[in-house]
Amino acid sequence: TVAENAGGPWQRCRILGQLGGLYVVLETEDGFAIMDPHAAHERILYEKYMTDLASGHVITQGLLMPETLDLGPADAARLRKQIDLFRKLGFGISNFGGDSFIVDAVPAYFAHAAARTLIIETSRELEEGGARAGAERLMEDAAARAACRAAVKARDELNMEEIQQLLNDLAAARMPYTCPHGRPTLIFTSYRELARKFGREK
Asked: Do 135 and 63 share a structural domain?
């Protein structure tokens, strides 16, 4: 499949397939690229989500069945402190009494993630990350962590259409080359570099 993508070394690329169930191999005009689908999807979700947050209108997805979170004392105490932040992030969450919470909606971009895991792990990571400078930075941190939890995982098998959609969305991103945490989404190797390594460069 030849992909037409706006800008970047992948402007015209051919999807060769997945490598080790972890990476996607692409042939470009000048060489080849290896894409990390998780990092790429994380970047895409994060930018779309931050755009919604900046506009003040986060699209939410209601759960078919509200989910009850019965938490341990430590997790519950932490989530009670963070509940307003989670609501601003687009989660429909309320204290059900004691150490129990009800979740009836999640941000639409994260609708395929397990609500319980998404909330609990994001909550824990926010605490582990320590205090941030201001509410805006805290929102960015929470958005990045939620995007990481909702992105496709290693060894998730992707079909050609899904890979193509990832490429299209990544090409439209403002910062397509790293995930929100700074990990690379794509690694490029040129034909010139290959020729040099194989001793074929004149």
From this structure: yes
